[in-house]
Design a protein that fits this description.
Helix content is 34%, strand content 15%. By secondary structure, it is an alpha/beta fold.
């Protein structure tokens, strides 16, 4: 008799199977999908899942990065290396170009996360992408926790949390009209710990800033920001060298580090397993503007 234990999946295997099914479903349903790839751990994981979903063939859609111009160089270097290794097309939507041509206006504080949205929407319209893979997870933020895996966006790219489609029995409704699109989140049911355990299992490479290193930092609003050309200390903010790592990667002007000695994947997993604050809640300055900062941006068309 066949042993039923042989057919049981681990949690990671189940999450991987679900994500690969979603990715394949999108490619089957939509004419022009694209994957948002910033070089951060979640989009790196998603790119690995896409690679496995279509192996031995190439990934059948391009990747896109909304480049604010304030990124960490280590992350950009990793992004370019990974894209070259996989032989996929990289589309870069530049916030700096949008500022130069007058499409958007840079805020007085010099931060650019909040002006990514119109640049993203312009790029989606220009390339006529109909399905956009994002690396958002429900454990990151309250707004992301209530968003569907297939997230419908109207012809202005906007999200209405009160007008979401049911997803019973893993059935996803991808029907859209001209100008509309679907944001797709294959990692919705993953946690930060799941991501790191999958990275360990698959032997996935990451930018070096995800691991503990010495860096000049200063404290602002209770967070440690690295000294960067686009993130300078203000009067009264003292600079010191600390051993830190980054839990999440975004704009250098708004992404903080955490003190850590975790310089290997195994040590990061042990550290993440004991934390009770999400990486966005602990280190992202753009989520501190208001309690509903993420939801407000998603309503406007943010990832």
């Amino acid at each position: 008799m066949t042993d039923p234990q042989r057919y049981q999946l681990s949690q990671l295997q189940a999450l991987e199977a679900e994500a690969i099914f979603i990715i394949r479903e999108v490619v089957a349903e939509f004419e022009r999908p694209v994957l948002l790839f910033s070089g951060g751990k979640d989009s790196i994981t998603m790119l690995r899942l896409a690679e496995k979903a279509f192996h031995p063939a190439r990934i059948p859609f391009p990747v896109m990065h909304v480049d604010t111009g304030h990124n960490f160089q280590e992350v950009l270097d990793f992004r370019d290396r990974r894209v070259e290794e996989l032989g996929v097309q990289l589309v870069v939507a530049s916030v700096q170009e949008a500022i130069d041509n007058g499409s958007v206006v840079e805020p007085p504080d010099g931060t650019r996360n909040r002006i990514q949205t119109p640049v993203l929407l312009d790029a989606l319209e220009k390339h006529r992408f109909t399905a956009i893979f994002g690396g958002a997870r429900r454990d990151e933020d309250k707004a992301r926790a209530k968003e569907r895996i297939f997230s419908f966006r109207d012809d202005f790219g906007q999200w209405d949390p009160k007008n979401q489609r049911p997803e019973l029995w893993s059935l996803y409704n991808g029907r859209i009209h001209d100008g509309e699109s679907i944001r797709v989140f294959p990692l919705s049911n993953w946690t930060e710990l799941d991501i790191w355990q999958y990275i360990e299992r698959e032997g996935i490479g990451l930018p070096s800033i995800y691991f503990a290193h010495e860096r000049e930092v200063f404290s602002r609003r209770g967070m440690l920001f690295g000294v960067h050309p686009y993130c300078r200390p203000r009067d009264g903010e003292e600079v010191g060298v600390r051993r830190v790592r980054y839990r999440t990667v975004g704009d250098a002007s708004l992404t903080a580090a955490v003190e850590s000695d975790a310089d290997t994947v195994a040590k990061v997993i042990a550290e993440v397993a004991t934390t009770r604050i999400t990486e966005r809640g602990a280190t992202r300055g753009d989520d501190k503007f208001s309690e509903a900062a993420m939801e407000d941006r998603k309503r406007e068309g943010y990832f």
